[in-house]
Design brief:
Blueprint lengths: L1 E5 L2 E5 L7 H11 L4 E5 L2 E4 H17 L8 E5 L4 H13 L2 E4 L6 H11 L3 E4 L4 H10 L4 E4 L10 E2 H5 L16 E6 L9 E5 H15 L6 E4 L6 H14 L2 E4 L6 H11 L3 E4 L1 H9 L13 E4 L6 H10 L4 E8 L4 E5 L14 E2 L4 E5 L12 E6 L11 H7 E2 L2 E10 L5 E6 L4 E3 L2 E3 L1 H9 L4 E11 L3 E10 L7 H9 L10 E4 L13 H10 L1
Parallel strand pairs: 3-13, 5-6, 5-7, 7-8, 8-9, 12-13, 14-15, 15-16, 27-28
Antiparallel strand pairs: 1-2, 3-4, 10-11, 16-17, 17-18, 19-20, 20-22, 21-22, 22-23, 24-25, 26-27
Helix pairs in contact: 2-3, 7-8
């Protein structure tokens, strides 16, 4: 590695790297033309077939869609082949992709499409109503729909495009710092900001994953995380495309039985999930009857995983490796990854800085803190986005001398392992004593009847704030609040023990699996 200026910041970079996504994709096609790139439902698409489809789409977009470099194309698609095909076609054209969170409301979707100034919309049939509203006010703009749309609608279908030959003779020149996508942060609070990811951001993120994981080839991943989220997009989809792996896409939302069956049938080697998925896998009544020996890597993020769960997974799948990972939309997926063969006493950590990443922990005074001290985590590297779409105020607020201010309170131990303690805004102040969520939640996750847990601060007349815990029990378990409080008193100081405990069916999360504590605070106000 060497130091180089990327997006105006001096950072560590990989010297031997492709300059663009297209260069990386073409190399993969050349090396593995007959290897499966995408598996979805009954479709199996090789890299050579995918290359043809991508060029057909790019040709149609140029000739009939009047799309040119730096235009924006919005994707209102779930995890399906058309998402990958369109993303790559746009990359060739220098067109900026806007992957939309399909779980958003109609109003939110239309707002994001307008903010991005999209010139084209690609959608599946479930979102035809959004398409109709958008096209009514943009009648000259093009729409591409998946093939289940009624034939009487005035939209172009993907299948019709794939029936034509590509007529494109040349593509525009693309630089590695050119924008690749605008991803609206699903954040844990506030108005979504459009983080602009570039080719160089994605390429360095994938190379960081590759260097840490050192996965055996060929890699086959099963994607349950939405592709419109940075984990699914970069941590799985682009990781496979650049490394020559296979993207196996879930046709419908996660269900444990079919998920385990797909792992067995498709010989999946790489998973990336929130911890809850792994807990549900092990809790499935037929878990031991599935052959899961193909799994080499189980990555996770978005929430802590208790040492008990980690130990149980290692025992159940001894040939597999567990890697915690920490990142955000702004870090283009990974900022920290747990290294191979980490000591078990580090299981509360989210890992070490990725090879091209740099961390510093900053006090409220602005001074850099030494190892072991808690402050706000600042992150730097070529994988960090450099702007928010048409929002210079947010850029000035979020960056400092080349570092992105994460908003996470963290500490780094003497061995370089990173520990996320809390969101800066979520620290609970109980009578002058600071309570960090991570410490309390990690203990709650260790309770044998608890599957998920989250704490918030609630108003208290005496202490200002008290600790309240929301608990999702494991299937078939019914822990009492008093039993959980007794358990907690054995592990933490009394002021950290939740005074209130509420048992709920699920925790609200964003698409990346991070718990939305703003929703829990709203729930508390309603009660």
């Amino acid at each position: 590695m060497k130091r180089e200026t990327i997006h105006g910041r001096e950072v560590y970079v990989f010297e031997d790297r492709p300059s663009t996504i297209m260069e990386a994709f073409e190399k993969t096609v050349q090396n593995y033309p007959e290897r499966e790139a995408i598996v979805w439902n009954n479709q199996r698409i090789t890299y050579l077939e995918l290359q043809k489809q991508v060029h057909q789409l790019a040709s149609w977009m140029t000739e009939y869609g009047s799309i040119k470099k730096n235009d924006r194309v919005a994707l209102l698609l779930g995890n399906r082949p058309e998402f990958i095909q369109m993303f790559l076609a746009c990359a060739y054209l220098g067109v900026i992709v806007v992957p939309l969170n399909v779980r958003s409301s109609k109003k939110e979707l239309l707002n994001m499409i307008e903010k991005a100034g999209a010139s084209m919309l690609c959608a599946e049939g479930d979102y035809a109503e959004v398409v109709e509203v958008w096209q009514a006010s943009h009648p000259t703009n093009s729409v591409i729909m998946t093939n289940e749309v009624p034939l009487n609608k005035p939209y172009t279908l993907f299948d019709h495009i794939f029936e034509a030959e590509s007529s494109i003779s040349a593509y525009p020149h693309i630089r590695e710092e050119d924008p690749l996508y605008i991803m609206f942060t699903s954040g844990t609070t506030g108005e979504p900001k459009g983080a602009v990811g570039s080719h160089v951001n994605v390429i360095h993120s994938v190379l960081n994953y590759s260097q840490v994981f050192q996965a055996a080839e060929p890699i086959r991943t099963l994607i349950a995380v939405p592709l419109f989220h940075v984990t699914g997009l970069v941590g799985q989809m682009f990781y496979m495309i650049i490394s020559g792996g296979t993207n196996v896409l879930l046709k419908r939302r996660y269900q444990t039985g079919p998920y385990l069956d797909l792992i067995e049938r498709e010989k999946i080697t790489f998973l990336f999930n929130v911890p809850t998925i792994y807990i549900m896998m092990m809790s499935h009544e037929e878990f031991t009857s599935f052959d899961l020996s193909s799994i080499e890597i189980m990555a996770f993020g978005g929430a802590p995983m208790s040492p008990e769960t980690i130990t149980a997974l290692m025992k159940a799948l001894p040939k597999s490796r567990l890697h915690n990972a920490y990142g955000a939309t702004e870090t283009t997926s990974p900022a920290a990854i747990m290294p191979r063969d980490y000591p078990l006493d580090k299981t509360a950590s989210v890992g070490k800085a990725v090879p091209t990443g740099e961390f510093k922990v900053i006090a409220e005074t602005g001074e850099e803190l030494p190892a072991g001290e808690i402050g706000e985590l600042y992150i730097k590297g070529p994988m960090i986005v450099h702007e928010y779409w048409q929002n210079q105020e947010a850029v000035q607020r979020s960056f400092d001398q080349g570092y992105w201010k994460s908003g996470d309170m963290a500490k780094i131990d003497g061995d370089g392992f990173l520990y996320i303690m809390d969101r800066k805004k979520d620290i609970i102040n109980r009578g002058g004593e600071k309570v960090f969520s991570a410490e309390v939640e990690n203990i709650l996750y260790g309770h044998p009847d608890v599957m998920e847990a989250a704490i918030i601060g609630v108003p208290d007349d005496i202490f200002g704030e008290e600790v309240k815990a929301y608990i999702v029990p494991k299937e078939g378990k019914n822990p009492s609040p008093s039993a959980i409080q007794t358990y907690m008193k054995e592990h933490v100081a009394d002021y950290k023990v939740p005074k209130k405990i509420e048992i709920i069916d699920f925790l609200p999360r964003n698409p990346g699996g991070k718990i939305l504590k703003t929703k829990l605070l709203q729930l508390e106000k309603q009660t």
